[in-house]
Amino acid sequence: MNTFEFVPAHSVAEAGELLTANEAPAKIFAGGTDLLGEIKQGVAHPARLVSLQSIAALRGIALGDDGARIGAMTTIAEIAAHPQIRTRYTALAEAADSVATPQIRNTGTLGGNLCQRPRCWYYRSPMFDCRKKGGARCFAHDGANKFHAIFDGAICPAVHPSDTAVALTALDAQVATESADGARLLSMQDFFAAPGVDVTSENALRPDEILTAVIIPPTTTNLRSVYLKAKERQAMDFALASVALAVEIADDTIISARIALGGVAPVPYRAHSAESAMLSKGISDIDAEHIGRLAVEGATPLTDNAYKVRLASSLVSRAVRTLLSSE
Q1: The domain containing residue 188 runs over which residues?
Q2: Which of these, 62, 194, 215, 254, is most buried using a 10 Å CB contact count?
Q3: How confident is the model over 28-39, as pLDDT tens digits?
């Protein structure tokens, strides 16, 4: 492990300045549950860690008629346990509750969960100079790829590991950021960066930019959401595949539907064809198995992960049945 400097920031502006001061390679330190692992594995080599733990403005959950605002330093455990999040934004609470272990949920933050790096073993090993680390080759394509992408993986098939990202995508959330150039509000689609945009990064944050909060639109009594996750072990494991489904129902008719898949692509994956097939349909006319099949249309599995196609399809079908049967 290389020597590094640990510097607490007391404001978002100060954090941004510290990230670019003296041109020293620096990283944000939130909960540290992912970053410290990268440093120990020899994947990340920061000269400075900029801690956000002293910035009280980045913590907390505020709900009102205009929706919800969740500070980036709010812990995963706080989100999972919040009664109004569980009621209004059920998929997010369920996703938060599925993250790792109680110890990690009590330390890990929402911002950190969204910005965590992939768990691809080639990326995580200092022995492989893969594309995500600036190399010229992806070792997963012709190697061990059981846990890799079945969508959009031509450049890099490492899947995004965040559970909350999948739920927030289905809930049409936005990410608030701040930098010396001002504040930005990005959709989940614009926040996450596919390998074709920048293979070495998973998001659109600039070098001095801080993720400050997540904004979720207001809900109605007609909105239902659910998060389902399949994993090899029941405790402390990442998704083999996951789905977040959010539907709005009025007069037994689906007036909006958003389906996001996790564990199957480098960023949270929207199943647009499956969503379209649900719109304006009566709940009794929805064929859950058909929606599941549509959700995985166009999948291109690798040698060891074809099982994900059926698994993701089944999760989508189950999510549809779960929400529509509750009406």
Answers
A1: 57-115+159-216
A2: 254
A3: 999 999 999 999
